[in-house]
Predict the structure.
Amino acid sequence: MKRIKFIAGNWKLWGTLSQAKDLAKALAPALSKAPYRYLVAPPYTALAAVKEVLQGTKVLLGAQDCSALESGARTGEVSVLMLKELGVDAIILGHSERRQFHGETDQLVNEKIKLALKHGFEVIYCNGETLAEREAGQAAAVVVRQTKEALKDISEADLSKVTIAYEPVWAIGTGKTATPRDANEIHAVIRKTIADIYSKQAADAMIIQYGGSVKPDNVRELMAMPDIDGALVGGASLKSETFLPICLFDQ
Ligand code: PEP
């Protein structure tokens, strides 16, 4: 089965409204003509403005998180209903920074994924092991456990709206990248887990992105691996000079 590559930029806590608009303007024309699927995830405050810039292009708009509740007493949180009205297409969930700095558990991530899917969003679900887990030989076991927990009670039909991003925690923002071979090995483990929970067809169709210090000079060899179907990019997505060469890696 031919899987279409999907490359996403996570802008995290970077960029004021005007900076986000400028970056979106620099990306949109080039990505509209590019061959794959693309997404940018600006901070909440820039979603509406970036949506306007992306209007009429094929670049998807992503949010970096959402609340596990539709509404309620949750100061500072943002609901799927609010994201829907802004025209957000997809939500990144389970990012390791949410787990590390906001105490998100696999169970909470599962609740958020179900809520996002219920409201028609695509989801980019992130998982990955820490350095200590990798050094203890636990990398595969950790991602299997995380994947099973995150996808609990999600139907095979809904699964088609989920992309999985394998992001080894030790490779995020550190300049250290998993070797293409090591990354591919875990991608294959994730794909097998999808086959075990769902079906071979679902596993063959699953888009699995790699994330962790993807840069213009390492993207090509990562994308050449059979089980790597795209990238979730942090630091290098903040400038068009580095994000465009990643998006256009084989052009
Ligand atoms: C990320 O935050 O998802 C990420 C992969 O960051 P970076 O590319 O900066 O390592």
In short: The chain has one domain: 6-247. The chain has a mean pLDDT of 96. The longest strand covers residues 122-127. Residues 10, 167, 172-173, 211-214, 232-236 surround phosphoenolpyruvate (CB under 6 Å).
